[in-house]
C-alpha cells in the first residue's frame, strides 16, 4: 500500500489543470498582464484548499512566483522555481519532498483571451480544473457532519466476531489522529496494522540510520489499548530505499536484507503477532501461459537475488521472531492468472522449506463488482496448502478504481454517497463477511485499510465502515447483523430482482421489462424480457441514459426508454428501480456521469461472465451515450470514452457559463471536442430552454457528423406520451442506423428528401452526414 503523502500527491497536488481569470481584456496581451495575485480553489482528500498565487516580473523581464495555500489544518507556503515568461506564456515548477522522495511539479500556461490556461502535471497524470480570479473566493461552506442516514449500532464489530477471527484497521496511530478518532479505533477494532511507518523507506531511510519514533509510538499505543499488532512490511519492491541495492552485489544485498529484518522484527519480537514478510511480488495481469509460472515482478530484489529472495526473507523473519505468524501479502491474487501464479509461488515456497504460515488477500474491491466466488475459492485453495488466510487491506469502494497498486488515477470527487450507494455497499460487505465466517477455521484476521472515509487512501470513494465524520454507515450494521444471524440466514441467497412492465412492454418485436441487478447498484435496466433471441450475430447494443435535472430516477422517461428496449436494445439508466413508479427523497439525490461509465464497465463484464444472463448477448462495440437536459450534459461528459459509438443529446446543450444547479456537470464548449462519433441532438424547438445552447453547440461542432432535430414541444419533450411520443421514432431510427447498421433507418436523416425534412412538424440541420 502507498503512504498517504503519495496518495495526496497522486489525487491532488501533482496533477491539476486550472484557469486563471484575468480582468484586463485589452487586445494587447503582454507578460505584464500576468502579474499580480490570483485566487483559486481545489478539493483534496483533506478538504478544500485555497491557492493565493503571486506573479511578479521586473523591468529586466525576470519573473518570480510564489503562493500561500490555505488548507484545512494549516497554511502552506510555496516558492516556485524556474519561473519563465515569454509574452503570453508562463511556466514554473514546484519541488516538494516527502521523506527521502523528491517530487517536481511542472506548470505551463498560455493566455487565451481573458484567461490564462495553466496545466500542472506530475508525470503523465491528468488534472482537475479550477477558476482563479482577482477576487478572494467565498469561504467554503461548513461541512455537514450529519450522516447520509442514521445507523444505530448495538454491538461492536470486534465483539461480534471475537470467536471467529480478529477484526482490525490500518493506520499510523496515534500520530496526527484526533482524540475522537483514537477512541473510535480502540473501541471498535481488535487489531492494528501500521499503514506506512514500518515500511523500509520510513523506518530505515539510510543504511546507518533508523527512525523508530512512530513505530514505537504505535506499538505502545496498541499495547495500552489491548490491540493485536500486525507488522507491514519487511520486503517490498516499492518504498524501499535505493541504498539496499547499491553495487548490485548479491551477497551484499542479502546481508542488508537480513540485517533489516533482524533489526526491525527483532526489535518488536514478542510484541507483534504477525508480519507481512514479502509484499506484492507477483506481476499484475497475466495470461494462460504466465498462470503456469510464478510470474514474479521484475523488482530490484528479483534482479539481484533471483526468486530465492522470498525464501530468504521468510527464513530471516523466522530467525528474528520465531513466534510471529509469517505472511505473503498481495492484491488481486484471488482471481484469474494472478491467482494461479500465487498458487505456483506458494507451492514452491512450501516445498523449499520457507517458514511461511499464511497468505494475505488484500481485498481492494469495488461495490457491485466484488468477485465473491473467486474469493471463496482462493481461501479454500490456500487452505489446501496448509496455510492460514487473512483479508489484510479491506475496502469496498463506492465509485472509481479499486486496485491495490500505485498507478494512474483520476481526481476523485468528495460528493457524498447516495443512500442507494450505501445500501449496495452494505450488501457487498455482508456477503463478504458471510464468506469469512463460513471459513472461520482458516481466516485469522480481517483488517480494514483505514479508519474512516477521511482516513483512507481511497478518499472520495467512501470505502470504509465509518464516514468522514466517524458516523457508522449501513455497512457496519449489515456486518454485525450477519454475525448475529444463524448460518442458514447468513448463506441465504438474495431474492431475484423485480421486473416491471411499462405499457405492456412496448411496441417493438421484443416485449420489454424494467429490472435491476444486485451487482449494479443505483441503476435501472430496460431490456427485452426474453433474451434467448440474442446470441451469435444478433446482440443487444447498449444505451447509457442520464436523467433530466440530474434526477436519481428514470420515472420521467420510462415510456420512452421501454419503447427503445422493445426494439432490441439494453438501456442502463441512472436511478434505482424502486423510484420508477413512486418517487421519494431518493429520487432527488445527486447523480453524476461516472455512474454511466460504471454501468458500461458492468455490462461489458457481464457479457463475458458465464454465470450472467447477459453472457454473450451484448454488443459491447455498439454503445450510445444519451440523456435529457442534465443527463444530456452527462452524456457529453463521457463522450471521450473510446467505447462510446454515438452520442444523443436530448433537450440539452453546453451552457455558456457555470450552472447555479450544484449537480450540473461543469462543462465548457471545449468539451464538445470529446465527440469522436456521430452526434444527434433531439430538441424541443425555440421554446425549449436549452434551444440556444444546443444550436450554439451545433454551430461549433465540425469534426464529426452531427444532426440537429427540433420538434416544437418545449423542454419537456414527448417522453411521457404513450410509448415516448414522436421522440421515440427519431431516437430509434438513429440508434438502429448507428448501432445496428440499418441503412433504411438513415433515410430519417440523410438527404434533401429525408423523412424529417418532409415532416412539417420537425426541422433538421446536418453537417458531415453521409449514408
From TrEMBL:
The keyword Hydrolase applies. Keywords: Carbohydrate metabolism, Glycosidase, Hydrolase, Polysaccharide degradation, Signal, Xylan degradation. PROSITE patterns: GH10_1, GH10_2. GO terms for biological process: xylan catabolic process. Residues 126-146 are annotated as: Disordered. Belongs to the glycosyl hydrolase 10 (cellulase F) family. Residues 135-146 have a biased composition (Basic and acidic residues). It comes from Rubripirellula amarantea. Residues 1-21 form the signal peptide. Transmembrane segments: none annotated. One of its GO terms (molecular function) is endo-1,4-beta-xylanase activity. Its EC number is 3.2.1.8. It catalyses: Endohydrolysis of (1->4)-beta-D-xylosidic linkages in xylans. Residues 151-482 form the GH10 domain. It comes from the Bacteria. This is Beta-xylanase.
Amino acid at each position: 500500500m502507498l503512504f498517504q503523502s503519495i496518495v495526496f500527491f497522486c489525487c491532488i497536488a501533482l496533477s491539476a489543470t486550472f484557469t486563471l481569470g484575468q480582468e484586463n481584456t485589452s487586445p494587447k496581451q503582454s507578460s505584464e498582464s500576468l502579474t499580480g495575485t490570483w485566487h483559486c480553489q481545489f478539493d483534496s482528500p483533506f478538504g478544500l484548499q485555497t491557492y493565493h498565487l503571486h506573479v511578479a516580473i521586473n523591468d529586466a523581464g525576470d519573473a518570480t512566483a510564489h503562493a500561500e495555500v490555505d488548507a484545512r489544518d494549516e497554511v502552506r507556503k510555496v516558492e516556485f522555481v524556474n519561473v519563465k515568461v515569454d509574452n503570453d506564456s508562463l511556466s514554473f515548477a514546484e519541488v516538494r519532498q516527502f521523506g527521502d522522495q523528491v517530487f517536481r511539479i511542472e506548470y505551463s500556461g498560455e493566455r487565451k483571451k481573458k484567461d490564462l490556461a495553466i496545466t500542472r502535471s506530475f508525470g503523465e497524470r491528468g488534472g482537475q480544473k479550477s477558476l482563479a480570479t482577482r477576487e478572494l473566493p467565498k469561504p467554503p461552506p461548513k461541512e455537514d457532519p450529519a450522516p447520509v442516514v442514521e445507523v444505530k449500532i448495538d454491538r461492536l464489530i470486534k465483539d461480534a466476531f471475537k470467536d471467529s477471527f480478529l477484526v482490525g484497521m490500518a493506520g499510523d496511530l496515534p500520530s496526527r489522529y484526533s482524540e475522537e478518532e483514537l477512541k473510535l479505533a480502540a473501541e471498535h477494532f481488535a487489531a492494528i496494522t501500521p499503514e506506512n511507518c514500518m515500511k523500509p523507506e520510513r523506518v530505515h531511510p539510510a543504511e546507518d540510520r533508523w527512525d523508530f519514533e512512530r513505530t514505537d509510538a504505535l506499538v505502545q499505543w496498541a499495547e495500552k489499548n489491548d490491540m493485536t499488532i500486525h507488522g507491514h512490511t519487511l520486503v517490498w519492491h516499492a518504498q524501499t530505499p535505493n541504498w539496499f541495492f547499491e553495487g548490485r552485489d548479491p551477497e551484499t544485498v542479502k546481508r542488508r536484507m537480513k540485517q533489516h529484518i533482524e533489526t526491525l522484527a527483532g526489535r518488536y519480537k514478542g510484541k507483534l503477532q504477525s508480519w507481512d514478510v514479502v509484499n506484492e511480488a507477483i506481476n499484475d495481469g497475466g495470461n494462460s501461459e504466465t498462470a503456469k509460472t510464478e510470474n514474479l515482478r521484475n523488482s530490484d530484489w528479483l534482479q539481484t537475488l533471483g526468486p530465492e529472495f522470498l525464501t530468504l526473507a521468510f527464513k530471516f523473519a523466522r530467525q528474528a521472531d520465531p513466534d510471529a505468524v509469517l505472511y505473503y501479502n498481495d492484491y488481486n491474487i484471488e482471481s484469474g492468472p494472478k491467482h494461479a501464479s500465487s498458487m505456483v509461488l506458494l507451492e514452491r515456497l512450501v516445498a523449499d522449506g520457507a517458514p511461511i504460515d499464511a497468505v494475505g488477500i488484500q481485498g481492494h474491491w469495488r461495490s457491485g463488482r466484488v468477485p465473491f466466488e473467486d474469493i471463496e475459492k482462493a481461501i479454500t485453495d490456500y487452505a489446501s496448502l496448509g496455510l492460514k488466510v487473512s483479508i489484510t487491506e479491506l475496502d469496498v469502494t463506492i465509485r472509481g478504481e479499486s486496485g491495490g497498486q500505485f498507478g494512474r488515477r483520476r481526481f476523485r470527487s468528495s460528493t457524498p454517497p447516495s443512500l442507494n450507494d450505501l445500501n449496495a455497499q452494505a450488501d457487498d460487505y455482508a456477503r463478504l463477511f458471510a464468506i469469512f465466517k463460513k471459513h472461520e477455521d482458516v481466516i485469522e484476521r480481517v483488517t480494514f485499510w483505514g479508519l474512516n472515509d477521511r482516513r483512507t487512501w481511497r478518499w472520495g470513494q467512501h470505502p470504509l465502515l465509518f464516514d468522514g465524520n466517524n458516523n457508522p454507515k449501513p455497512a457496519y450494521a449489515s456486518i454485525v447483523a450477519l454475525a448475529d444471524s444463524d448460518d442458514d440466514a447468513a448463506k441465504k441467497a438474495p431474492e431475484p430482482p423485480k421486473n416491471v412492465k411499462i405499457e405492456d412492454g412496448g411496441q417493438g418485436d421484443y416485449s420489454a421489462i424494467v429490472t435491476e441487478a444486485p451487482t449494479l447498484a443505483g441503476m435501472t435496466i430496460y431490456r427485452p424480457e426474453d433474451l434467448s433471441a440474442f446470441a451469435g450475430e444478433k446482440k443487444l447494443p447498449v444505451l447509457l441514459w442520464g436523467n433530466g435535472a440530474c434526477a436519481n430516477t428514470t420515472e420521467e422517461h420510462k415510456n420512452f426508454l421501454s419503447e427503445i428496449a422493445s426494439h432490441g436494445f439494453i438501456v442502463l439508466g441512472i436511478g434505482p428501480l424502486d423510484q420508477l413508479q413512486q418517487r421519494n427523497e431518493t429520487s432527488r439525490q445527486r447523480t453524476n456521469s461516472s455512474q454511466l461509465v460504471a454501468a458500461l464497465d458492468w455490462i461489458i463484464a457481464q457479457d463475458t461472465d458465464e454465470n450472467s444472463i447477459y453472457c454473450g448477448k451484448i454488443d459491447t462495440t455498439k454503445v450510445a451515450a444519451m440523456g435529457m437536459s442534465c443527463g444530456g450534459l452527462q452524456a457529453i461528459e463521457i463522450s471521450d470514452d473510446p467505447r462510446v459509438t454515438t452520442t444523443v443529446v436530448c433537450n440539452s446543450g453546453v451552457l455558456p457559463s457555470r450552472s447555479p444547479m450544484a449537480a450540473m456537470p461543469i462543462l465548457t464548449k471545449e468539451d464538445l471536442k470529446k465527440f469522436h462519433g456521430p452526434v444527434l441532438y433531439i430538441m424541443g424547438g425555440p421554446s425549449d430552454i436549452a434551444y440556444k445552447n444546443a444550436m450554439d453547440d451545433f454551430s461549433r461542432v465540425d469534426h464529426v457528423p452531427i444532426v440537429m432535430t427540433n420538434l416544437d414541444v418545449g423542454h419537456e419533450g414527448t417522453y411521457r406520451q404513450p410509448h415516448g411520443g414522436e421522440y421515440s421514432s427519431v431516437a430509434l431510427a438513429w440508434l438502429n442506423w448507428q448501432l445496428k447498421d440499418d441503412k433504411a433507418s438513415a433515410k430519417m436523416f440523410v438527404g434533401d428528401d429525408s423523412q424529417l425534412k418532409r415532416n412539417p412538424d420537425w426541422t433538421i440541420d446536418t453537417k458531415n452526414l453521409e449514408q
